[in-house]
Amino acid sequence: MFVRWYLRQLQQRPLLTGMVSTGALMGTGDVIAQQVIERRRGSHDVIRTARLTAMGMLLVGPVIRTWYLTLDKLVGGKMVWSTAVKKLALDQLCFAPSFVVLFISSNNALQGLTLDDTAALLRSDYGSIVLTNWSLWAPAQILNFSVVPLQHRLLFSNCVALIWNTYLAHKAHDSSTTPG
Fold this sequence. Notes:
The chain is mostly helical. It has six helices and no strands.
């Protein structure tokens, strides 16, 4: 029942549906990061979860959706191995490294951190974040680009992103890596 409703919303309002689902899953990732990884049982940071939910809705969802549409225009929409490999290369070598910078910079700006703080965080953690990104996203995206129809790629990515968002939320707020 929910799946049918979601698919209808995706068809009728693809951008809005993608924005809402991305926001919900980013917020969920932060809740998991705080409650399971960081074990903040009695001190959940609601503002942080709201910030990451808003980032999912207003930044991540629209950017990723636009990226997938752009990839289909650049490389083609066929779900064949050669097309999927080309999309994977563009996604992981061009888009992902720059998106990590955008995500961290946006998150830090919304926290009120300075550009110097952001630069320090990127200097210390950028390489490990991108390597972790590749280890999760390369296999997921080859599957996404080779077998998942375009209209469902954002949803597939959002499901994988629940793991990634949990990691990013924790990494972005880890007191040992967050400057200041």
